[in-house]
Design goal:
The protein is of the alpha+beta class. It has a single domain, classed as Ribosomal Protein S5, domain 2. It is 29% helix and 34% strand. The protein has 5 helices and 12 strands. The strands form 3 sheets. Strands 1, 2, 3, 4, 5 and 6 form a 6-stranded mixed beta sheet that branches. Strands 10-9-11-12 form a 4-stranded antiparallel beta sheet, sandwiched between helices. Strands 7-8 form a two-stranded antiparallel sheet. A hairpin with a 2-residue loop joins strand 9 and strand 10. The radius of gyration is 19 Å and the shape is elongated. The relative contact order is 0.19. The mean pLDDT is 95.
Length: 263
């Protein structure tokens, strides 16, 4: 997630880099700890599922809408998943209204990739009859930005999917006013994002830490295997650093899954 840097950001970044060189962070966390995570589900009554996630000061809302559509021609026996993300201008001075930004497209694709690769949604269960299947539209809205949109976005997305109920289907039509069963999920995937500042690796970067970072790596896992990875920024990681990051991501999966399952 590439955010523009002004003079104040430059001063903050210099301070953050000095702290990192001493193995310290602005908020006092250790290198591999998350900020406080809060999850609230079912906040949007007109959605089939919804969740709000606060990761420190970063806030993301996710909504699930289900639409009865024709399956894709190359996958006639399953439903569809469509993920989008919007970086609302109210969330940060760096976000602008208009067409999707590269950052919002990257966020949506990273979340989509992890969910698909982990086969979280049972797409086959979305087929209602030949030529008709549910499409799951998963929309992410960034309400406040203070770093780490990948992990907060995945937490919100998976929590909203956990909250989702499938509308009724009767006489060849969708009955959107009735929700008859939970959306069938096969798996839960979590996302862990690390930044490298100098020689220091930090989990769950704040906005200031993202601006100061040399490199970024996101690991998405279901606790058993790596489902997706995303490298960002121009810096590099050593083989040992990547191994350490992967190990830490696996170690955090149960903690993140507990937040997703809650409620």
């Amino acid at each position: 997630m590439m955010i523009q840097m002004n003079a104040i950001d430059y001063v903050n970044s210099k301070y953050v880099r000095e702290l990192a060189s001493k193995k310290m962070r602005e908020d006092g966390r250790d290198a591999l700890s998350y900020r406080e995570i809060r999850v609230a589900k079912g906040l949007i009554k007109n959605a089939e599922g919804s969740a709000q996630v606060d990761l420190g000061a970063t806030r993301v809302m996710a909504g699930v809408k289900m639409v009865l559509e024709s399956p894709m021609e190359d996958t006639p026996d399953v439903g569809n998943l469509i993920v989008s993300a919007e970086l609302l201008p109210l969330a940060s001075p760096d976000f602008e209204s208009g067409p999707p930004s590269p950052e919002s497209i990257e966020l949506a694709r990273v979340v989509d990739r992890g969910i698909r690769a982990a086969e979280c949604i049972d797409l086959g269960s979305l087929l209602v009859e030949e030529g008709k299947a549910w499409s799951v539209y998963l929309d992410l809205y960034i309400l406040n930005y203070d770093g780490n949109l990948f992990d907060s976005g995945m937490l919100a997305a998976m929590s909203a999917l956990k909250d989702a109920k499938v509308p009724a289907y009767s006489n060849g039509k969708a009955v959107m006013s009735e929700r008859v069963a939970p959306l069938k999920l096969n798996n839960v995937v979590s996302s862990c994002t690390f930044v490298k500042i100098g020689d220091t690796l930090l989990l769950d970067p704040t906005g200031n830490e993202e601006r100061a970072a040399d490199a970024r790596m996101t690991i998405e896992t279901d606790g058993k295997v790596i489902r997706a990875m995303q490298k960002g920024l121009s810096g590099s990681f050593s083989r040992q650093e990547i191994s350490d990051i992967i190990g830490a991501a696996f170690g955090k999966h149960d903690e993140l899954k507990a937040h997703i399952d809650k409620g």
